[in-house]
Amino acid sequence: MKAERSFDRSVEDVGNIQNMEHFNLTVPDQQLAALFYVTGLGFTRDPYIDFGTFNMWINAGEQQFHLPKSEAQKFRGTIGVVIPAHDDLKRRLNGIERWMEGTEYRWEEDGDCINVTCPWGNAIRIHQPDDADTMALGIAYGDMQVPPGSSDGIVKFYDQIFDTPAEKVEDNTGTYAKVAMGYNQEFRFRETEDDIDEYDGHHIAIYVSNFSRPHNALVERDLITEESDQHQYRFQSIIDPDTGDEITEIEHEVRSLHHPMKRRSLVNRNASQTFGNYRQGRDVFVP
Q1: Is the pTM of this model over 0.90?
Q2: What is the Cα–Cα distance from 246 to 248, expressed in whole angstroms?
Q3: Are strands 123-127 and 113-117 parallel, antiparallel or unpaired?
Q4: Which of 49, 50, 63, 90 has its CA 20 to 30 A from that of 26?
Q5: What is the average pLDDT across 260-271?
Q6: Burial class (CB in 10 A: 0-12, 13-18, 19+), 174
C-alpha cells in the first residue's frame, strides 16, 4: 500500500478576484515618466496600445502602469514591485538622476530592497525575486494608508462583497487588512495615525471570475460609479457592509473574464541588455 499523504489543500485556493492588472496614475510629463519607468526601472512601454503622447501603458511582467497625461496623482502608500538584477537596476537609477533634478525623485537601498520615489512622489518598493517567488517581474502589491480601526470593516467588505480571501494582520509592521489578488498578489490596507492625503482619483484594475454577484451587491448599496460596458464596471467607496459607513476610497475598475484584454500577452524586454553588452537572442525578458 502507498503511504498516506496529507496536504492542506486550502492554501491553494484562489478567491473571486483573479488578479490586479494595473495601477492608473496620471502624470503631467510623458517624457519624464518614460525616463523613470522605462529607462530607470527597466519596464517596457507597451508597443501596441496608447503609444502616443497623451497616455502611456508600461508593461511590468503580467501587470501594467497606466499613465495618462494630466495633473499628477499620488497613491496613498507604497506600490511593491519585483525587478531582478538589482546591480543593473542601481546603475539605471543612477543614470537618470541628472534628468530628475527639481522633482521628488530619489532612491535608497533598504536591506535586500530598493525604495524609489517617482518624480511626483509615488513610493515604490522594489524586491528582487528568489527561488520561492512566483513572480519574477511585476507588481506584487499595493500597500495603502487607511485610518486606525479600518481593518475589520475592509476584511468584511472583500469577504462579503467579492468573496475573496481577506484577513486582519497584526505584526511587527503594524495592523492592516490583507486582501488576496489572485495567487501571487495582494492589496494591503495599512492603518496609520498619520495624516492621509485626500483621494485624487487614481485607480486599480481587477479581474473577477464571478462578475455579477459583486455587481449586484454594489448596486444594492448604491456604490457603482460607472457602468463602463458589458465587461466592466467601476466603484470607488469601500464600506463596512454591516453599517454602510464609508471606510476609504480607491476606484476599482472591475473586469470580467470575458473582457477582451483578459490575459493579454505583454511584451517585456530584458532591461539588462544594453548597447555596451549586447548579445543576440537576449532582448526578451525570460523569468
Answers
A1: yes
A2: 6
A3: antiparallel
A4: 90
A5: 95
A6: middle
